[in-house]
Amino acid sequence: MESKQSDLAEIQDFFRRYRGITQDLSKDRVHRFQTEFIRLKNELEPLLDRRKENERKWAPFFNVFRVLRLEGKEVITHSAILAELLDPDGRPSQGFLFLREFFKEAQNIKLALPSVEDQTKRWIVEREKVTEKGNLDIVIKCPALQYMLVIENKIYAGEQGSQLQRYSEWMQEQKSYKDRQLIYLTPDGRKADTAGEYPYFRMSYCENIRKFLINCLREVKAPKLTETLGQYLETVENL
Question: What is d(CA 138, CA 149) in angstroms, rounded to the nearest whole number?
Answer without folding.
Answer: 8
